Amino acid sequence: MFAEIKGLNEECGVFAVWGHKDAAQITYYGLHSLQHRGQEGAGIVVTDGEKLSIHKGLGLVNDVFNPDTLSSLKGKAAIGHVRYATAGGGGFANVQPLLFRSQMGSLAICHNGNLVNANNMKHQLESQGSIFQSTSDTEVLAHLIKRSGFPTLEDQVRNSLTMLKGAYAFAIMNEEQLIVALDPNGLRPLSIGKIGDAYVVASETCAFDIIGAEYVREVEPGEIVVIDDNGLRAQRFVNQTARSICSMEYVYFARPDSNVDEINVHTARKSLGKQLAIEAPVEADVVTGVPDSSISAAIGYAEQTGIPYELGMIKNRYVGRTFIQPSQELREQGVKMKLSAVRGVVEGKRVVMIDDSIVRGTTSRRIVNMLREAGALEVHVRISSPPIKNPCYYGIDTSTTDELIASNHSIEEMREMMGADSLSFLSTEGLMKGIGRPDSDSNCGQCLACFTGEYPTEIYPDTLHPHAKV
């Protein structure tokens, strides 16, 4: 994925199904639709009502599964996961679902997000005798569940969640039931659907479309949902909740055909582009977007200004996963291999280049140079989000403060560094308006921490930034 060289890495994707005879196959297709959320590993756990079976591995969904492995996963329910390594780093031990076996039964867990108090909880649990088998923060929940002392899994999960801080969308399954839960701020997206009589849960609604499922509703912040052969029931596990869904879902991460918190992502991005055009117009001949996540915003910018939208850059979709090591040299080479300027579109033209965000600035500089080499007379860079000045602690690799170019340079300095004729970002108010949130002094349902530094949860002194490797 282009994010590898861009410096803004995806989170993870969670999928679950209960009550379908082809649970593993349904989950496989669901994970395919969530592949953009993680390309480092994938896994599926199924239950037939008596035991849990697992298959997982490093790589893309197609690399990990084949017809033989899928046919061996027999059961009526499944949970699946695609992973981008955040807290804890990569490696097979951290590929999810995590499966735990004991004399009291088995337990499988998938997680999208990042627990800001994971280190603190690990120290407490280890002092009480716990031994962790992975470096993933997800494993903390399994230890809390087993130590809770409550009689049912539902009560064990509910009690354990009250001790966790940060961002989490969990899918938890044993032989008899599926439990999904969302943190009290709803930082990560999670939706419920139905396919026939079966329930499905996914990080994005685009997963429902590929399997023919009907959208039912969002999982609410601070809500625990239990699904078993008797149906679905839900309740809150905390009283104080405040929706603060990650703004970058709309800006960059989610697929355009997904609805996040019942707001269509393509429509939101197009509106962001229109708002950007209102705030930062410029005289130019052509508008182009950096593929793929910026195309919707570029269309919106073009519509608002009347400047024609053109396909000024082409993404090479057949370059393999070569650039796993995030060194500067590989990033620069990666841009050349994964992106090409269309000379026939940009030569002799004043170009408005729309991108969704700037993290380190490396990619933006290379793209500006690429457009100039293809004959662009002027390159005006417009960003459909505010400057990213603060790291994310909730499951997105936005780099450390030292690496974030907007944390250490003015907009004019950034413009000079990337060699653009002009550079403008969308305002925070414009972001909220573009997404469609009501005007208010509050965040109105959005987390804006990477722009404003105002985090919706406490950040602990030993909180691991997702970029850190342990």
Topology readout:
Elements: H1 3-6, E1 12-18, H2 23-33, E2 41-47, E3 52-58, H3 61-64, H4 67-72, E4 77-83, E5 98-100, E6 107-115, H5 118-127, H6 139-147, H7 153-161, E7 166-173, E8 178-182, E9 191-195, E10 198-202, H8 206-211, E11 214-218, E12 223-228, E13 231-236, E14 245-246, H9 248-253, E15 259-260, E16 263-264, H10 265-279, E17 286-289, H11 295-305, E18 313-315, H12 328-338, E19 339-341, H13 343-346, E20 350-355, H14 362-373, E21 378-383, H15 405-408, H16 411-418, E22 422-425, H17 428-435, E23 446-447, H18 449-452
Parallel strand pairs: 14-23, 17-20, 20-21, 21-22
Antiparallel strand pairs: 1-4, 1-10, 2-3, 2-4, 5-6, 6-7, 7-8, 8-12, 9-10, 9-11, 12-13, 15-16, 18-19
Helix pairs in contact: 6-7, 10-11, 10-17, 12-14
In words, what does this structure look like?
This protein is α+β, with helices and mostly antiparallel strands. The chain has two domains: 240 residues, Glutamine Phosphoribosylpyrophosphate, subunit 1, domain 1 (4-Layer Sandwich), CATH 3.60.20; 194 residues, 3-Layer(aba) Sandwich (Rossmann fold), CATH 3.40.50.2020. The chain is built from 18 helices and 23 strands. Helix 10 crosses helix 11, helix 10 packs antiparallel against helix 17 and helix 12 crosses helix 14.
